[in-house]
Amino acid sequence: MESVDDVDRGLIHALHLDVRAPFSVIADVLGVSENTVARRYKRLRQAGVLRVVGSVNGFLLGRMSWTIRVRCTPDVAAPIASALARRPDTFWVHILSGGTEISCNLQAADTATRDTLLMDKLPRSTRVLDVTAHAILGGAATEWAGIRHLTRAQARRLAPEPPTNEPLRLDAEDHAVLAALAKDGRTPYTALGPSESAARRRVARLRRAGVLVLDLDVRPEALGHHAEARLWLTVRPAALKATADTVAAHPETSFAAVTTGRTNLVATVVCRDAGDLYRYLTERVGGLDDVHTVETAPLMRTVKRSGLEPVPHAGLGQQVPGV
């Protein structure tokens, strides 16, 4: 695992705040040279410690996101996860504890594509034992504390304006820009359009509307965190929003959302080790009076986070036909 120092951690936090911040601005905030920032970014990216990717806020385009669980025999978990990761409409593909379950999020462009995957392609395999899917009704804002390193004053210099989350009609050039940024969120403006100024305006427009979401994918192990887990909670309906906000505010939480289904709150937490995860479950979650049940599954392998591409060097098997 690539080691990181204070400059690396400052760069990672800076990119988390604004993944397209110019290296010159980040260098000024960190008090180092622009060449140092560029060199560190290149090293961390090549080592697979971080990636910058763009994704589409499907809610603003009328799409519904789904959280999916696939139970299967251990021999097909890796190839099924690999096949799911290669789909452009999936993100956050994980193989869970025991290697017999896959968790992923789906944001299909239309109901026919969603139904074909969930009711035809996945159940077709004799080694897929069970498939469940629940709609994500709304997410809660999270900021995993493990990524923080800058002071509040430094962070204020980098944080972009919040999006307006307004409906936006996309054209062919918008889709081309979104596809390019899904592969590399720091693709130069000169490669995104007929002119740098036009591309800059287009990206700004997409970000301002909230349609384009730029994320920093970081391997938590590089920051000293080795215990990730997916949680499914059953919460008293009247307290669901308050509980979702509380869980999202936990420093260990990297993702939290309200869903349909028997469990109605899903979350991902990142802890330093198994002991830290135990304390989180027994003290933080265990202390929430309105949480009736909690199901926990440690993440064995992250096959895909956001963006179009699977996580590099994931050691995946061959694609399962038809997925």
From TrEMBL:
Cellular component aspect of the GO annotation: cytosol
Keywords: DNA-binding, Transcription, Transcription regulation
One MF annotation (Gene Ontology) recorded for this entry: sequence-specific DNA binding
GO biological process, one term: response to amino acid
Highest taxon in the source lineage: Bacteria
Domain HTH asnC-type, first and last residues per copy: 4-64
Listed name of the protein: DNA-binding Lrp family transcriptional regulator
Organism: Actinophytocola oryzae
